[in-house]
Amino acid sequence: MSRNSAKILVLGAGCAGLSAAWRLARKGFKVEVFEAAPKVGGIAAGTIINGNIFECGPHVFHAADPEIMQDIKSIAQDSLLPFHRTIKIKFLGNYFNFPLSIADIFTKLPLSTLCSAITSFFFHSVKGLLVKPKQENSETVLIRCYGKVLYTIFFKSYIKHVWGIEPAEFSPEFARQRIPKLDVLNILEVLRSHLKLNKPKNKNVDVSKFVEKVEGELYTTKKGFSGITDKIAEEILRLGGTIQLNSKVKQIVWDKETGVKQILYQKNGEDYLEEARAVISTLPINEMIHMLRPTPEPSVMQAADKLKFRALVFVGIVVGRTKILPSSFMYFRDLTFNRITDLEYFGLDIFPKHGTILVAEISCNRDDVYWHDEKLAQEAVLRDLEREQLLKREEVLECYTYRLAHAYPMYTLGYEEQLHAILDFVKMMGNFKTIGRQGGFQYANAHMVIRAGYNAAEEVVDRLSQQ
Q1: Range of the domain at 315
Q2: Domain count along the chain
Q3: 446 and 401 in one domain?
């Protein structure tokens, strides 16, 4: 088979891989997608157990990108359901609304703590302008942005609980990308209002600079995010593309002259070779490097070994009562799990009809006890829910455990150097792209990885047009 007659191969059928394949198929290219799981969707798709969909966290679709929004609406149509998310975070015995409001902080923190927090915030804000730390990390960034008191209350122990390492061990990019800054002018405005020194000009405080931004309108479907990824997959097939499920990529064969030539994948216990005109990979970047044949130089292999992902264990609970949580999902810092979602808020079809599904997330590594002992994980979550008076044991109808090995890339100190070494090597291969949360080693919402898929497809098309 000639290289020009070979297909463009996409490794992984999550949001990034499906969007890249969809773009290529719409442009008339022969494309084939390989997915190790029995269904498409990746992280966003969740898992089906006993007829119910158990999500891997609170996934909703939103996009400020007009092209992406129009594309998804054109295929999902009436299956898209408008969604209003509500979030609460528990600190010091109180539930704080999220996005965090300064007013909430002022009214719910003890007065002595509040005074210390204000003093610490302004002190470290000024100090940060005058004194540079010897080594910048997420701890120094957060203290400079929030002060030491708020950093200790809201971030230090929570980050250690979720990630398993101290904030000081994280690259400063972790704090810059994941945790927005407080705005001094807004703090002064709320403080003046709270102390009734002056009537505020506006009732609503601008929180855009210190909350997690969610761009565009929010949507879900009765099938969760699978209702969107399934539609994309249908479009790929309609346009002549191929999707190979239960197909695990084992090797990626390449050379310096032509780049990637073929892949070796396993399906139903048999090994198959597939010729490649070009390849777009969304596989975990550290594992993808180990699939390359011949193996890259030692420095690239070592860089791959230094990139780590945080794993998640999910405990899914079917409950014979509706809306167990006071919000669509909640965060905790002192329980076994760090986040829990109530899927009834998301409009999913749930059985029984007058019940709901709770999904608790336990952050861990793959050598932790919760990763290996599902009964222990279930018992710990149920015990915590009882202690929080959110659930009674007799209300539990079903309980399941499922796992995600590569949930979050860990931005540890020095990760940038390792990632750049790998990306420089991949760029040298020419007809090979690595994208997505796992393939690009980056935090990204669904609409961001969809755009990454589109961009990768365009780059592949441009390169092939020059041959």
Answers
A1: 309-409
A2: 3
A3: no
Q: Could you tell me the strand order of the sheet in which 329-331 lies?
A: 94-98, 87-91, 329-331, 339-342, 356-364, 309-319, 396-409
Q: Is the peptide bond before 38 cis (omega within 30 degrees of 0)?
A: no
- CATH number (domain holding residue 433): 3.50.50.60
Q: What is the pLDDT of residues 280-339, one digit of tens each?
A: 999 999 999 999 999 999 999 999 999 999 999 999 999 999 989 999 999 998 899 999
pTM of the model: 0.89
Shared domain for 296 and 322, answered yes or no, is no
Give a yes or no: residue 275 inside a domain: yes
Asked if the structure places residue 68 within a domain, the reply is no
> Do residues 290 and 143 share a domain?
no
